[in-house]
Design goal:
244 residues, alpha+beta, Fructose-1,6-Bisphosphatase, Chain A, domain 1, seven-stranded mixed sheet, five-stranded mixed sheet, 26% helix, globular, metal ion binding, magnesium, 3'(2'),5'-bisphosphate nucleotidase CysQ, Inositol_monophosphatase-like
Amino acid sequence: MAGRVATSFVGKTAQRWDKPAGAGPVTEADMAVNSLLESVLRNARPEYGWLSEETEDSEARLSNETVFIIDPIDGTRSFVEGSRTWAHSIGIAHRGQITAAAVYLPMRDRLYTAAQGRGAFLNGVPITVSGVTALDDAAVLATKPNMDPKFWPRGVPGFDRAHRPSLAYRLALVAEGRFDAMLTFRPSWEWDIAAGALIVTEAGGTCTDKAGRPLMFNNPHPTLNGVIAGGAALHGDVLGALDA
């Protein structure tokens, strides 16, 4: 349903504007999907709190044990450019932990899902992270600024770097085993990470902040201290390379 709403807009001609403080673009499609999801999900679970990129945040959610964490369109720039690599990202957090998740790419017909303790799936088929264990042998999703030597006291690793604009999709690709790891050292909004983080862990991987600490959601300021995701051994190799 969300995919049909989003694809009813033409990315390059959809009305768009820039958020304050350089927070990036938003389009009428983002807002339409947000309205749809809020109506459907909150009517279904009125006792849940709500955190979405496109809804003004409220401290009221902090009093809810269970919260929807939503990015109506993750990768809005990609959507505007007419690319196919944007996604809907939906997570449910209970007492700070993600318990159910979906990442859907309507233009690629790819639906990634996970529920706590039940595994991860792509279009209903189980998925697992890759078995690569050495960082220099890995294919890693990361933006170019993450390769700055200041982050790598033991030297910049020789892994193959690639990029996708949607953080949720990057995490899903790691869960699927198409890439071995993903990392971002910038503060990351919870709605970009929530769903993908559970999909990675349910696919057998490890997903933490950039210091190796567990991810906690529904924070008063809904950001995380970067993200590192991959198979357990590879995740440890990344942390080792970052540790001065």
